[in-house]
Amino acid sequence: MHQGPRQRHPPAGRRADRHRHQRRRQARPQHERQRAQGPARAQPGGGQGVLHAGQAVRQLGMLLVAVALAAAAWWWFTTEMPRRERERQAAAEVATIQAERANALYRWRDDAGNLQVTEEPPKGRRYERINRNPQDGMAVDGAK
Question: Which residue range or ranges hold the DUF4124 domain (predicted)?
Answer without folding.
Answer: 104-135
